[in-house]
Design goal:
Helices cover 61% and strands 1% of the residues. By secondary structure, the protein is mostly helical. Helix 4 (53-85) runs antiparallel to helix 5 (92-109), helix 5 packs parallel to helix 8 (182-210) and helix 6 runs antiparallel to helix 7 (142-165). The two termini are 28 Å apart.
Length: 298
């Protein structure tokens, strides 16, 4: 049996959480992963050694929001698979871009050096999101970070072309280097989701080491996970989000890694919300068919 001291970082984390890393080990070497781990554990430790009600509430909200962004990208990409089968090509640019953008947001929620900033982390501009994520990945491997920035920029231009200008020849008139393929989107959504998971596991590890008591919760922070201010005079409260965050507050009371936040009930309800309301037979889009398109949800 291999001693724990001889395991690499991903194997050590897997030994604790059970999460199997695939894409991180494919795109980064052991030394790069080790350096990233050391930088992150130091950054997280500066917070967990000074834990507070505010930080407890923020990181519970951040990991919950990261989970939802990964799940939303999964729905977008499974929708894209169905659309391609049906030759519904007009939705391709939108679905590809926002599947990538959402996992970028998931990653940002897990970065220790990105401040909550009174919830303004939820409203970052698209270019800011692209810059933060490409910079975060470049800290591990510059070439991979540069490639991700190029992909995100290309997918943004792809989406904007059919949002604002709409060439008459459609997608078929574009060169291949202007189009983002679904396989490419799935690959990099998977990689970014794994990096978010990696980060969340390191926070959990630091929390377990340095936080020795329970902390309270700040409702205004937690409400960012279930309150939607589309209309400031009449905000929307999502009952499902409210219930899930309430469960964490009552039962869990602290941040855990992203995969552990994903309960089976949460996953079933999230994807089930996009099922047909009618008992239709035949070839109807079924979001329940491919939950794990980018992430090993339970």
């Amino acid at each position: 049996m291999i001693s724990k001291s001889r395991l690499n970082i991903c194997e050590k984390l897997t030994d604790i959480s059970g999460f199997q890393y695939v894409y991180i080990k494919k795109y980064f070497n052991k030394e790069e992963i080790e350096r990233s781990y050391q930088k992150l554990i130091q950054a997280y430790s500066s917070q967990t050694k000074n834990w507070s009600d505010k930080l407890n509430s923020e990181w519970i909200a951040r990991h919950y929001l990261a989970v939802k962004m990964i799940l939303s990208s999964s729905v977008l990409l499974s929708s894209l698979e169905y659309a391609i089968k049906k030759n519904l090509r007009i939705v391709e640019p939108y679905l590809i871009y926002y599947s990538l953008l959402n996992v970028c947001r998931a990653l940002i929620f897990t970065l220790p050096y990105q401040c909550w900033n009174n919830g303004r982390i939820l409203t970052l501009k698209h270019q800011k999101i692209i810059n933060i994520v490409s910079d975060a990945v470049s800290k591990i491997n510059k070439k991979v970070g540069d490639n991700i920035k190029k992909l995100l920029t290309r997918s943004r231009h792809y989406r904007e072309l059919f949002s604002y200008k709409f060439p008459a020849n459609g997608i078929k008139g574009l060169n291949k280097d202007k189009v983002v393929d679904i396989r490419e989107a799935i690959t990099f959504c998977s990689l970014l989701s794994e990096i978010a998971q990696f980060n969340s596991e390191i926070l959990q590890q630091s929390f377990d080491k340095n936080v020795k008591k329970e902390y309270k919760f700040i409702d205004d922070i937690l409400s960012k996970g279930f309150k939607y201010d589309l209309d400031k005079d009449c905000p929307i409260i999502d009952d499902e989000d409210y219930y899930r965050i309430g469960y964490i507050v009552r039962k869990v009371k602290r941040p855990y890694n992203i995969q552990w936040v994903m309960t089976e009930g949460m996953i079933e309800d999230f994807f089930g919300a996009w099922c047909s309301e009618k008992d239709e037979k035949g070839d109807v889009f079924d979001p329940d068919k491919n939950w794990q398109i980018i992430f090993p949800v339970p």
